[in-house]
Amino acid sequence: MDDPVWDATTFTKSHDRLLAGEVASRFLATVLAQPKVRALLSTEHFSVDGTLLEAWASTKSFRPKDGSGPPPDAGRNGEQDFRGQKRSNDTHASTTDPDARLFRKGPGKEAKLCFMGHALRENRHGLIVDALATRASGHAERLAASHLVKPHADRPRKVTLAGDKGFDARDFVAELREINVTPHLAQNTSGRRSAIDGRTTRHPGYAVSQQIRKRIEEAFGWAKTVAGLRKARHRGLAKIDWPFTFTMAAYNPVRLPKLLGAAPS
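Predicted structure:
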């Protein structure tokens, strides 16, 4: 306790080294590579999902890129009226965190500046096998899912990937089939025809995947309530991706004591 407090630059340099060294992804890979842990993993059946991560930026900072628009009221936290203004990610950007994007979770929901976190989970014991954060967009979940599952697609037996209705798009389903991944995606039949047909839904494994895929929300819930990821503490995509990946990696050791204790020796 009597040691002198380190200078702020020391912490900053250490943070930069953590980013440059990809410590979060290496930690996740090291945990999964342990022989006892590797024996618990499924190499054929996976689930994928995404969650919104609220950015450390106010909607007041979402200003026109060309510098137009009325300035906020005077003061440290001046009021600003957005009524009647059309704001989009094409014409506006946050002055606090330019990587953050204005996004709403669904119809009628409030639009917020946020990022998206994505995780790939194996279906046998529910361990996270990969994760990353991206800018928020309507296509981010499918692009991230494709990136996450590709390293696991090269298997002698066909791999399955479960997901919610947001992944039910013809181009994404076709991409999965091209890399020998069976799309166990929930059917989205609201006003259109689903890309998932009877060739997939008739198999008993499809129903099992639909039941198990929802458990990935447990990891997101733990990350936001226990690990403090409900709102980002950093700015910029690189500094959002690192804590999200590390938190998803930390979720595995939280679950492993029970799994290893129940596993036969």
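Summary: The domain at 26-54+115-262 is CATH 3.30.420.10 (Nucleotidyltransferase; domain 5).
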